[in-house]
Design brief:
single chain; 296 residues; alpha/beta; Rossmann fold; Alpha-Beta Plaits; 2 domains; six-stranded mixed β-sheet; four-stranded antiparallel β-sheet; binds adenosine-5'-triphosphate
């Protein structure tokens, strides 16, 4: 069981502060979604986690050990800029990468066959990478990250540009790896996907962690929402209720945020006082809504 720990990492590029004391951990067997606006610091964090970029201060540890060359070999990494040789055939390339990670020639061939089959690219073994669609290149890139049976997976935007079937293939594989105890961290701008897949999420903004927690914990921090459909309700029907803010009112549908001291039953009574109530639904903000609040 492996844990990836990012501990108070700072990084500057010249006068740009890219990371300003970033700390979080990715626990054994969890899918950790790493989200943040463009330029927030995700790629920098992941490159430092892998050890291809050094931090100015702070430390990355895997099971308590700083990431040196040996520890680095146990990580499967999918870089954002992708790192395949375009003119090399898929099969030869994956086998070569597996051998670089220390697999014997026959184990490297077996692993290539296993992962290309699993990722639906077995028919493309003899194609050069540049002859593949971008989505298939991405599947090869994931195969390259998995080929040496890594103890940790660090994936920079693995889902970007994939069609829905490829998203399913990719997420099944990540779930499968996580189930074996591997900590999996991936960055993404597809927040609905992150909300659906991840055990925990970290939101980074301008080089600082703004929130870390399970999806439910984070959504719980955003306060509860109520959607009320009461066709005869006039605008303002809920505005004097304690702890209630009106987020919107249109065609008899009112969206309310319940803050401290709000009583949903008092809201229901007030809604019923306007006439029939057709819907009364308690919801939590989505990760996308929460993200907007946290990074704003
Ligand atoms: N090689 C570099 N030289 C100078 N500045 C850099 C370099 N790499 C990143 N930066 C800066 O560091 C900050 C963090 O960038 P980073 O690429 O880590 O963000 P990101 O969250 O991965 O963004 P995106 O979602 O756009 O991929 C940004 O301000 C970026 O401009």
């Amino acid at each position: 069981m492996t844990t990836l720990t990012i501990d108070n990492v700072h990084k500057r590029y010249g006068s740009t502060v890219a990371l300003d004391g970033v700390s979080f951990e990715v626990r054994p067997g969890e899918l950790f979604g790493f989200v943040g606006s463009n330029g927030a610091g995700k790629t920098t964090t992941m490159r430092i986690a892998l050890g291809v970029l050094s931090a100015d201060s702070g430390e990355v540890r895997i099971d308590g050990k700083p990431v040196d060359l040996d520890v680095r070999r146990t990580i499967g990494y999918m870089p954002e800029e992708r790192g395949l040789y375009p003119k090399m055939k898929v099969g030869a390339q994956l086998t070569y990468l597996a051998e670089l990670h220390g697999l014997s020639s026959s184990d490297a061939k077996d692993a290539t066959a296993t992962w290309t089959h699993r990722l639906g690219i077995a028919e493309r073994l003899n194609d050069t990478v540049d002859a593949l669609s971008l989505g298939n290149q991405q599947r090869v890139q994931l195969a390259a990250a998995l080929i040496h049976d890594p103890a940790v997976l660090v994936l920079d935007e693995p889902f970007s540009g994939l069609d829905p079937v490829a998203v399913d293939v990719m997420s099944d594989v990540l779930f499968e790896k996580a189930k074996t105890g591997v900590p999996v961290i991936f960055s993404s701008h597809q927040l609905d996907l992150v909300q659906r897949l991840c055990d925990r999420v970290g939101i980074i903004g301008a080089g600082k962690m703004r929130a870390v927690g399970t999806v439910d914990e984070l959504r719980g921090q955003g306060g509860s929402r109520l959607e009320v459909v009461a066709p005869h309700a006039q605008p303002g029907w809920a505005s004097s209720l304690a702890g209630v803010s009106v987020l919107g009112h249109e065609s008899g549908r009112t969206v309310l945020e319940l803050g401290d001291g709000a009583d949903d039953q008092a809201v229901l009574a007030a809604a019923l006082a306007t006439g029939p109530v057709h819907e009364f639904t308690l919801t939590k903000p989505s990760l996308t809504e929460l993200f907007r609040e946290v990074v704003a």
